[in-house]
């Protein structure tokens, strides 16, 4: 019997599950007192709240007894529930009838059977947060602010199931709204593309106009702005003169786009191929030891920073 419990939600019968699983669902808020449950041998489906120990705890029962004016739950005065067969369709009909009866006979404002210890924790957190807000308004102290934030954290922990359900519903609503109001265009192209001219425009190409015979390296400025200069450098077997070292006032970022080269620093030599790049600090001495003699070597160099 402990593992053959069935329950109904959204007009559907679900199960079988264990009584411990039902208890866990009740504690986390996935099973509410209005949901009907049944196990083989019971003559009728009954509200989940009718099962002893499924909802509430000793703490809840103590609080319930301490509050005056708590009457019997309307289910205690309802007429007997009709026997419920175990098929899904009839179980769903029972849920609708039971829900309508519950809406007609309103119970107390506080449904004690639905409360769990986490709800008490959330209530205490809310009370602590309210005190913190009052102290913050009066004292303006960090302690009062910490008091308020701690209370809010307790309340959030206690209501994690409800908060998760609200966030899930909000995400679902946003998804539905974005789908509903998604703009539709009759053209297959976006409107900004349809408005553009289809006339082809030739853009510069960094590999264009590469000379086949390069008596000396070619330096072409592609962009020049305040503290920034971009150059294309074309080498063809060239290297720096003997005993010559570059000592630049600006930092340099350089990449080899085509060909190959070797750059010499004071303490090491670096070999570079297509896609290789490096950064050279201002006044870091360096020289070009070798570039490919059988094809052009194309560099892209970016000089930046204030001249030192």
Can you give a write-up of this model?
- The chain has 8 helices and 12 strands.
- With 308 residues, it is α+β, with helices and mostly antiparallel strands.
- The protein folds into 3 domains: 5-109, no CATH class; 117-178, no CATH class; 218-304, Jelly Rolls.
- Strands 5-6-12-7-10 form a 5-stranded antiparallel sheet, with no helix packed on it.
- A hairpin with a 2-residue loop joins β1 (5-9) and β2 (12-17).
- Mean pLDDT is 76; it is low at 68-86 and 102-109.
Helices and strands, with pairings:
Blueprint (H helix, E strand, L loop, with lengths): L4 E5 L2 E6 L1 H10 L7 E3 L7 E2 L10 H9 L7 H4 L10 H17 L12 H23 L2 H17 L1 H21 L10 H5 L22 E8 L2 E8 L15 E8 L2 E5 L3 E4 L4 E4 L5 E6 L5 E8 L4
Helix pairs in contact: 5-6
TL;DR of this structure?
By secondary structure, this protein is of the alpha+beta class.
Helical run tally: 8
Radius of gyration: 39 Å
Unreliably modeled segments = 68-86, 102-109
Largest sheet: 5 strands, antiparallel
Nearest-integer average pLDDT? 76
Helicity level, as a percent range? 25-40%
What's the structural domain tally?
Answer: 3
What general outline do the C-alpha atoms trace?
A: elongated
Instruction: Please report the total strand number as a whole number.
Output: 12
Beta strand %: 15-25%
H/E element string? Answer: EEHEEHHHHHHHEEEEEEEE
Oligomer: single chain
Give the helix/strand class.
alpha+beta
Strand order across the biggest sheet? 5-6-12-7-10
Distance between the termini: 86 Å
Pick out its properties:
four-stranded antiparallel β-sheet, 8 helices, single chain, five-stranded antiparallel β-sheet, elongated, 12 strands, alpha+beta, Jelly Rolls, 308 residues
């Amino acid at each position: 019997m402990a593992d053959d419990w069935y329950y109904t939600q959204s007009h559907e019968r679900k199960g079988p599950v264990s009584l411990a699983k039902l208890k866990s669902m009740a504690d986390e808020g996935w099973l509410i007192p209005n949901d009907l449950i049944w196990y083989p041998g019971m003559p009728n489906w009954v509200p989940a709240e009718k099962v002893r120990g499924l909802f509430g705890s000793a703490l809840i029962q103590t609080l319930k007894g301490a509050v005056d004016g708590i009457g019997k739950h309307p289910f205690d005065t309802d007429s007997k529930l009709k026997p419920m067969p175990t098929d899904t369709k009839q179980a769903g009909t029972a849920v609708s009838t039971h829900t309508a009866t519950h809406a007609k006979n309103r119970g107390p404002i506080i449904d004690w059977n639905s409360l769990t210890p986490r709800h008490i924790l959330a209530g205490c957190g809310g009370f602590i947060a309210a005190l913190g807000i009052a102290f913050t308004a009066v004292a303006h102290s960090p302690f009062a602010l910490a008091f308020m934030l701690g209370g809010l954290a307790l309340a959030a922990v206690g209501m994690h199931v409800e908060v998760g359900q609200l966030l899930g519903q909000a995400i679902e609503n946003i998804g539905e709204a974005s789908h509903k109001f998604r703009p539709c265009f009759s053209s297959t192209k976006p409107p900004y593309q349809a408005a553009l001219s289809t006339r082809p425009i030739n853009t510069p190409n960094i590999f264009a106009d590469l000379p086949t015979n390069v008596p000396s390296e070619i330096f072409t400025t592609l962009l020049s702005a305040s503290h920034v200069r971009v150059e294309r450098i074309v080498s063809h077997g060239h290297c720096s003169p003997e005993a010559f070292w570059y000592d630049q006032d600006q930092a340099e970022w350089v990449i080899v786009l085509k060909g190959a080269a070797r750059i010499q620093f004071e303490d090491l030599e670096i070999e570079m191929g297509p896609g290789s790049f490096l950064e050279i600090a201002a006044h870091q001495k360096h020289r070009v030891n070798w570039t490919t003699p059988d094809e052009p070597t194309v560099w892209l160099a970016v000089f930046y920073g204030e001249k030192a």
